Amino acid sequence: MSPSRQAAKARRRTELLSAAGRRFAADGFHATTLTSIATAAGVSAPAVYRHFASKAELLSALLVDVSEQLLAGGRAASQEADPLAALCLHHARFAVTQPDTIRVQERDLTSLDPPSRHRVRRLQAEYVRLWIDALAPLLPGTDAAELSVRVHAAFGLLNSTPHGLRRSGPVPDAVGLLASLAHAALTAER
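Request: output the structure for the sequence above.
Response:
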């Protein structure tokens, strides 16, 4: 396959995943049809099958891909001078730009086949570990359970706020604001 054909195929795959994310977020995995995904992507239903064997494979690709991307970005952020601030910024950027994917993950993770669900959970656990490792030096003596609660609470803040942004309207530097709020929540005194 020529490089330009490979690039076109990769673009189409990305377009299909994006359309699937929008449709799954709007209607839920079970209520979404491949035809509605194809329509949202601007292709025919048979064209979807050139990239994905089923709606379940689309969901798996969407959630595994995003989990891998989050982890890769988290690993890069962990190498920054202030890893926690970099992680907060990385995740805030994700939350603001991909609220549909967050909604799909929250609602339809259990619809994944067991191997895909296990893979997503493993990637998520590695991502959480990066956050705990970045937070621990800032809260010396804090036990692992509390660090985990703090990290998950920050994810709740980051992942739910973009839904509110849709209702409130544009906020100047929403990513920076969310990153700052998450950092403050993570390091707040008891």
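The domain at 54-187 is CATH 1.10.357.10 (Tetracycline Repressor; domain 2).
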